[in-house]
Amino acid sequence: MTIFDRYLLRRYWHVFCIGFLALFGLYFVIDVFTNVTDFADQSPGVVAFITTICKYYLYRACYFFGIVGGTLMVIASMVTLILVQKHGELNPVLSAGISTFRLLRTLLLGALFVQLLIVANQEFIIPRIAVHLQVDAGHSHVIGNVDPVKDFQTDLVIAGKRLDLEHERIEEAQFVLTHPKLSERVQTIEAKEAVPHENKQGRRIGWLLKKVSIPYKDLQLTEMGRKFVAPGPSADELLVRTQVTFDQLYNRDSHYEFLSTSELIQRLRNPSASHRSLRSQNLYLHTRFTKWILNLCVVAVGVPFVVRRESRSLITNLATCSGVMTTIMGVNELSLYLGKVSLLSAELAAWAPIIIWGTAAAWFTGLVRT
After folding, report:
1. pTM to 2 decimals?
2. CA-based nearest residue to 76, from 125, 21, 3, 124
3. For residue 164, which of 193, 138, 144 has the smallest C-alpha distance?
4. pLDDT tens digit sequence for 139-184
5. How many CB atoms lie within 10 A of CB 34?
6. SS3 per-residue string spanning 119-168
7. Computed over its alpha carbons, how large is the radius of gyration of the chain?
């Protein structure tokens, strides 16, 4: 790596960090003034008030980085090239026989490093702080409403009054055993609480219901029902085996964004999930694998419009590049929408933008001033 490469990367990181701090700072200022009353009500003193705000927005900084990191990665590449031209540094480089594509390689290296940070944040940090990302402003205890879920393998219906997200339990749970798979007739088991149950290998196999309304001996179970419903450690407890996990009971249409890729794959293999939910999750999984490639393709597409051969006006180049970026965003969102409504398969919806913009990146290379 040459001195100029290091100089270019420093400038790239400078633009990226300033952009992130500016965007997050704007979000912080707007959001903290919106929720300042909630923070004040839940904090007994000034120190607790400041600590609560810092913890709340520290978790959201990680999530915010995952959302805007890809966009900032592209913007930083374009702005870095524009600054190189503005300061008159591009012409000497080209006069020395160094191609613009050599500079593009350095920018792609910086963008790739940013993408690795985004992946590490998604896989290792977000799943561990998912509970904190769902807490309301000023609160430390996370309580949510239960989204009733049907286990499509056994027709078991799980509901409840509320969820304790921090301890992963259902309060005032209701488990409905349906006919004809699990029960001779429809029976609703009410429990004071239900907690995830694990086997000896540490794998979650179902739910342990505590202080149930119907003891095991009074249940009218079918042969299949006896395989999925078993007595618990005490007389007022029941073990219900199901593949429905805790995260499917709360914001299940968006909660999978907080899962790691391995956890998301396990959920897709879950036979209890509905077809609609699986389609959305399958599309999201594909976008995880394609997003980083797409971001690099977008950088390659934008460079020819920033350093155009037939134009020396930075303002014109910037305006043209902004229009191209807007078009790229529109095509990408359209492709994802068509995938969500099943007009395109999840695979095609996720990979079509890469095919389009990868081809465009090669096609536009003739516009670059070298």
Report:
1. 0.83
2. 21
3. 144
4. 655 667 788 888 988 999 999 998 887 788 999 999 999 999 999 9
5. 10
6. HHHHHHHHHHCHHHHCCCCCCCCCEECCCCEEECCCCEEEEEEEEECCCC
7. 26
Rounded (5°) CA angle 30-32-35: 110
Cα distance between residue 142 and residue 258, in whole Å: 16
Strands 187-198 and 169-177: antiparallel
Domain map of the chain by residue range? Answer: 1-142, 146-249, 252-370
CA distance 77 to 303: 8
* Residues with Cβ within 8 Å of residue 22, at least 6 apart in sequence: none
Q: Are 215 and 236 in contact (CB under 8 A)?
A: yes
Q: How far apart are CA 133 and CA 339, in angstroms?
A: 27
State which H helix or E strand residue 190 sits in.
strand 187-198
Residue where the block lists tokens 């904090």: 43
221-229: long-range pairs with CB below 8 Å, 24+ = 221/177, 221/182, 221/183, 221/184, 222/180, 222/181, 222/182, 222/183, 222/184, 224/154, 224/181, 224/182, 225/177, 225/181, 225/182, 225/183, 228/154, 228/156, 228/182, 229/177, 229/182
Supply 238's token pair.
């029941």
DSSP lists the bridge partners of residue 173 as 160, 191
